[in-house]
Amino acid sequence: MLAEGTLGGRVALVTGGGTGLGRAMAIELGRLGARVAVAGRRSEPLEEVARELGEGLAVPCDVRDPEAVAAAFEAAERELGPVTTLVNNAAGNFLVRAEDLSPNGWRAVLGIVLDGTFFCSRELGRRAIERGGGGQIVNVVATYAWTGGPGTVHSAAAKAGVVNLTRTLAVEWAPHGIRVNAIAPGPIDTPQTRERLWPTEEIRAAVLAKVPLRRFGREDEVANACAFLVSDYAGYVTGEMLTLDGGAWLEKGMFGLGPAPGS
Fold first, then answer.
1. What CATH fold (topology level) applies to the domain 11-189+218-242?
2. Does pTM top 0.90 for this prediction?
3. What is the pLDDT of residues 29-39, one digit of tens each?
4. Of residues 118, 144, 216, 228, which has the active-site annotation?
5. For the chain, which residues make up each domain, given as ranges?
6. For the purposes of burial, counting CB atoms within 10 Å of the CB of 39, is it exposed (0-12), middle (13-18) or buried (19 or more)?
């Protein structure tokens, strides 16, 4: 865990910051001394996080709309100062077979995940470059961006695009001192995931059986990884993907040893 004050002087904008991982990352950046604005489409949870932050700011924003993104940055900079740090966490996803996915469903998820990440990144990039450079971006992706994600073809394709976007912008903006990285959380145990993804002990056990570390991740572990990547401790890291999934995505071999005795 980084020490309080590590991010003093930073101004961070976290999209999808009202709940879940977005909230956890926003709270941790605030604890470390950054002034934080949380953006999203629902104002009530954003306001709750802003209150929890103390000096935080809630900024309603649909990241699919570049004008709304620009307005969110304007609001954040008017209240908190120039935005130095961006966390692209806003996402959309639902389970559907590819043959049943509607054009509107496809466009909605790609709009939030891929378009939104680009619009927000471009806004920070333009502003930082105009000020003389310097800044940090962390994009939230998922391991199925490179393994494939049956049932989530829209999200998998969008996040694969974000992986490439991360690496491309890391190279383009390195001369301006803007670092761009990504984190790929695996199964993280939250009230929402317990309700939606592993609502029974049987399903929970089946999910855990696929995780070599045999446990779920925690929100604070994701928040700590995000904080590290935007801090000066990662000052020589850019274009990197940091996976936090207990080894779940790694190839287990064609035979597989199964769980160790007593595990």
1. Rossmann fold (3.40.50)
2. yes
3. 999 999 999 99
4. 144
5. 11-189+218-242
6. buried
